[in-house]
Amino acid sequence: KAFQDYPSLSRIIVVSTISGGGLIAYSEANGTNAVVETGTRKKKVVLLGTGWAGTSFLKNLNNSQYEVQIISPRNYFAFTPLLPSVTCGTVEARSVVEPIRNIGRKKNVDTSYLEAECFKIDPASKKVFCRSKQGVSSGKKEEFSVDYDYLVIATGAQSNTFNIPGVEENCHFLKEVEDAQGIRKKVIDSFEKASLPELSEEERKRILHFVVVGGGPTGVEFAAELHDFVREDLVTLYPKAKDLVRITLLEAADHILTMFDKRITEFAEEKFSRDGIDVKLGSMVTKVNEKDISAKTKGGGVSSIPYGMIVWSTGIGTRPVIKDFMKQIGQGNRRALATDEWLRVEGCDNIYALGDCATINQRKVMEDVSAIFSKADKDNSGTLTLKEFQEAMDDICVRYPQVELYLKSKRMRGIADLLKEAEADDGSKKNVELKIEEFKSALSQVDSEVKFLPATAQVAAQQGTYLAKCFDRMEECEKNPEGPIRMRGEGRHRFRPFRYRHLGSFAPLGGEQTAAELPGDWVSIGHSSQWLWYSVYASKQVSWRTRVLVVSDWMRRFIFGRDSSSI
Ligand code: FAD
């Protein structure tokens, strides 16, 4: 076929590759060496990570021109929102995981999996360097490298200890399934240990003091689950422990669940106080020893709290492989990989990053937004008419849909008010009070680290779906770009930018009560939201197998209570 298509060919070299073979034909006609590439070599996509972002990418990719090499130390997907339930046996660990080889089995995309962790990304040679998981645990150096055409980084994040002494050594984290299993065992072991003879009352109290550090959704949910486990199951089996067990929640800020509506925060704090969960606000942990934890209060005093078990849940930090990669590409001073709105790592053409390890860099976007407002000020007066303002906003929203949300947010209160005014404009040509220079300087102060999007499963999953759709239409959109008009240069971008749709969030508070914050500022708290929580989490399961397992675990718990065996 190559000889037919290129009659001037004198020689053909067939290059055999793992991915189906390729053909490079050399033409020496007219004394020049033209190189023609034919054949059907598939593009190799290396996917790092089998969490929310990676799995959603894998599930939605549907184009046979790719072969996907999945690399992750975890050969399964874990439904993290149910991990707090795993810590107390409300749901079993195996019910919230699904083997990645099941998820990755596809009719029209070649996928394969390697159980390994990537320790180095080399964008220059388009290689990732990996270490097999078995090698990591046995201390042997089982290392290898994998080439890629496209690299999708979805390695998530790790627990953040803020380098506080003693945290790593003495605290439990709640990030992985193994962590949840470890916590479950330790809780039950603590009750057994406190039941042994010849212990002082004080020692029993210390052993049964459970401290949770961090008043975010995970810390709060764990504290609530633990409270239910203790009150509904453990005190019946360990009656002597009833008056000794204590749960304390330490939070450095002035309130817990600060990312939720004020009504939810207030309800949660009141409920915890009624339940006897001791919420210590404004308490900053400074050190963790083997048997006590030191916390600084807002007044400057330091208290030492004896504990039996600590669960550390204060947020996320960067994984070493991402830190190393960021250094290589000049992003060393950041906390997460900066990408553009198309999820492409800044400065790296074929590398994409999504989920908790990445953040969309907004600084360039803000520069463009500034430029649009300057352009709208046609008479250079430094102010805009409402109509000009509205037109500028329309322009921005077409190019950068995600900025619309930000400008309407509380942080940009002035703009948000103007927008409302512009929407209600009766057509009169009054000037708006937008001082363009002031506005531009406000935008330029927007920290490039601003996370327009929270680090949640919802964001990670939507990014995975978006990127898979981009990959599916890569060739088509190369020819017919469909994205917004380019600010710099001519034409359009290949794809529309990523746009996040917030579907709401839940905060389970124990006692079959959940707080739900749904789109449109709709807040619902109580038993009805708990049923909504059950239905949403059942429907969001990655497979029918896990859906059936999770629902039957909930029923088992309703009928028989939680299992308190220490295995
Ligand atoms: P992850 O899901 O963490 O996946 C990262 C993947 O990368 C893993 O497979 C990991 O093994 C792999 N990996 C790690 N290092 C490497 C390496 N070096 N090389 C290759 N692979 C690697 N979000 C919500 O929206 N709602 C909730 O209710 C909610 N509850 C949560 C409860 C808990 C207890 C936790 C811990 C998180 C919760 N989250 C929730 C947050 C949510 O889980 C994360 O935002 C989400 O997991 C991020 O997805 P990801 O794919 O970026 O990372």
Count of spatially separate domains = 4
Spatial extent as radius of gyration: 28 Å
Beta-strand segment tally: 27
CATH fold call of the largest domain = FAD/NAD(P)-binding domain
Beta-strand content bin: 15-25%
Q: Based on the structure given, which CATH architecture of the largest domain is correct?
A: 3-Layer(bba) Sandwich
**How helical, in percent, are the residues?**
25-40%
Q: Average pLDDT, to the nearest integer?
A: 86
* Multimerization state: single chain
State the CATH class of the largest domain: Alpha Beta
As laid out across the biggest beta sheet, the strand order is 10-9-8-5-4-11-23
The largest sheet is: 7 strands, mixed
Query: Which structural category fits the helices and strands?
Result: alpha/beta
Task: Count the DSSP helices.
Answer: 20
